[in-house]
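Why should sequence recovery work at all? Because a backbone constrains its sequence more than one might expect. Tight turns favour small or flexible residues, buried strands favour hydrophobic ones, and helices have their own preferences. The token representation captures these environments compactly. In the example below, the structure is given first.
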């Protein structure tokens, strides 16, 4: 077995509030993509510096399309989280300096497999132009500008994969508080479902966008008869790699002149990073072997029954395990 690393796009400028042309991806079986975003600091105010959000706020949507159908789609923040959960790959940060106009970088994985480089789980070989990608950007975020990207791919030469992952984002925003159902896709096993809620409780008796979740299969409760947002979020953190442990993180130093501890803002950048606080996960593959996968084939309806505490933005991203044509269906 042999893998091949290729560069698809090299230092391409990403304009604000724009969409790239469709980018042709390699034709060999594809394990994963590596998207490196480069940006320059556009601030001398340390409180404007952010570790990941400077990048994720700028990339509002990424689509990987096979013959025009989405295999992956979602904001960079959503895709960053789902890949961290599935593969354990944390975004790689470079040049974490706060000097104005210094360049910083971050590398994000977009994987077709729970285990990168796994020959059995990868996107199969295609013809030129069938597998494509495009990126949509928003406005320049506070503290960063001059964005560019490098896109690389890991191909698995001579591999004959049996399955691959598909994950696309759906809007689940409610029009009123209380219970509401959101249908999940049917036909393929589902390994998990990422949840995003705009509001998480931070005050006494506060509310969450998503308060509780149930899973209904043909109107019967399965797997999750009732689960609270806080518990789902706490369990979600079990799967996250260490980079996401630095929530609301800052340093203090001892000032001998006043004998007190003071914030060390002038000594280096804060790594305040609240992205993970807005996510939770329904895990149907806790052992990473598919034995608990949610079977949807032949079902009349598979739905999340969400109790909404608010009507602000909510999204969900199911992870489907797709059998390659001619291969045995996933367990």
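From this structural description, the recovered sequence reads:
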């Amino acid at each position: 077995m042999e893998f091949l690393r290729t560069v698809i796009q090299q230092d391409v400028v990403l304009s604000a509030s724009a969409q790239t042309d469709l980018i042709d991806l390699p034709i060999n079986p594809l394990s994963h993509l590596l998207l490196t975003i480069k940006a320059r600091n556009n601030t001398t105010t340390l409180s404007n510096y952010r570790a990941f959000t400077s990048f994720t706020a700028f990339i509002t949507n990424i689509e990987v399309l096979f013959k025009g159908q989405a295999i992956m789609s979602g904001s960079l923040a959503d895709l960053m989280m789902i890949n961290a959960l599935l593969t354990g790959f944390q975004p790689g940060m470079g040049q974490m300096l706060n000097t104005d106009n210094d360049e910083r970088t971050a590398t994000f994985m977009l994987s077709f497999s729970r285990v990168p480089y796994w020959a059995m789980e990868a996107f199969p070989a295609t013809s030129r132009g069938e597998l494509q990608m495009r990126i949509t950007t928003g406005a320049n975020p506070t503290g960063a500008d001059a964005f560019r990207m490098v896109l690389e791919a890991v191909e698995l030469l001579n591999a004959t994969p049996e399955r691959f992952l598909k994950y696309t984002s759906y809007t689940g925003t409610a029009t009123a508080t209380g219970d509401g159902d959101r249908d999940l896709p049917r036909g393929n096993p589902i390994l998990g479902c990422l949840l995003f809620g705009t509001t998480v409780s931070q005050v006494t008796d506060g509310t969450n966008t998503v308060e509780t979740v149930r899973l209904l299969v043909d109107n019967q409760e399965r797997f999750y008869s009732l689960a609270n947002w806080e518990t789902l979020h706490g369990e979600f953190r079990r799967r996250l790699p260490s980079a996401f442990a630095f929530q609301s993180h800052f340093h203090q130093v001892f000032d001998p002149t006043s004998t007190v501890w003071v914030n060390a803002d002038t000594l280096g950048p804060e790594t305040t990073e609240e992205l993970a606080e807005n996510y939770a996960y329904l895990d149907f593959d806790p052992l990473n072997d598919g034995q608990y996968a949610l079977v949807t084939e032949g079902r009349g309806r598979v739905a999340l029954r969400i109790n909404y505490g608010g009507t602000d933005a909510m999204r969900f991203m199911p992870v489907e395990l797709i059998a390659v044509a001619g291969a045995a269906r996933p367990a």
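A few observations help interpret the result. The longest strand covers residues 144-157.
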